[in-house]
Amino acid sequence: MPFGAHEALEVHEVLNEKVCMIDHFAQYEQQAGDPALKDMIRRHRQAALRHYNDLVSYSHDYAGVVPNEVQFSQVASPNSIHYGLRNPNPVAPVAAPTAQLYDEQICRAVLLSHKNSAKNNVAASLECADPYIRQMLMNAANSANYHAYEVFEYMNRLGMYQVPTMQGHTAKTMLHSYQQY
């Protein structure tokens, strides 16, 4: 079964992105100081490798993988998230870059990689006619979404990613303006 033009181009872009992610995550894992961060990056890199290999395999012979929808059971409780700003550190580019990244830089890079991967995989899936390619791309998007949330939780727990809040009942008032039909 041949690929359509959109599928071929989208899969090409997703695979390029995945190669970059896998290569960068290997470097981040080596440079991370916190063992928990190293472990998280290692697991995320392994998942990216699986998605990459599945997509490459299927694109070569159209039979390498029959994807199932990925289910994730680990959902955080809203009570575990720290809301509000507590004197956040200023963020700016490093004036004199060094070869060694620090953990917060690594976390931001990993988080942004996952966010972009999720968006790009969803967008690519919308251009694909082949149902297996669509499902593989959606699985990769879901995986990136959950991995991004895991990085967010790690950063939030350490005060690296603070969640601003609104004054008083502003959010509630805004959201309660919508009524069921």
Automatic annotation (TrEMBL):
Keyword line: Sporulation
Pfam families: Coat_F
Biological process, per Gene Ontology: sporulation resulting in formation of a cellular spore
Parts of the chain that traverse the membrane: none
Subcellular location: Spore coat
Predominant cellular place of this UniProt entry's protein: other
UniProt similarity note: Belongs to the CotF family.
UniProt cross-references to PANTHER family, sorted A to Z: SPORE COAT PROTEIN F-LIKE PROTEIN YHCQ
Protein name in the entry: Spore coat protein
Source organism phylogeny: Bacteria, Bacillati, Bacillota, Bacilli, Bacillales
